[in-house]
Amino acid sequence: MALEQTHVRRAAHLARLDVSDAQALGFVDDLNRILEMVDQLQGVDTDGVAPLMHPLDATQRLRADDVTEGNERERFQRLAPATEDGLYLVPRVVE
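Now predict its structure.
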């Protein structure tokens, strides 16, 4: 499917973009080339090819799972406007 200037103008309107006629013509050419490349990629036989999670054999460096902060629940509860049994009380918003 080849795009036309009306398609680009419609997309620009929906995105609330001010696109001139010259820009729209340029976008038509660019988008049509992109769609041609997509068509080429869809024609490639990928049967038996496993999908890749990442193209490189990279591993994520993980930090040590150590506690770095103490329990300050009591201090935070003292700062709260209303608490009860260790819970924060908030105004009801749904009836």
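Residues 1 and 39 are 10 Å apart (CA to CA).
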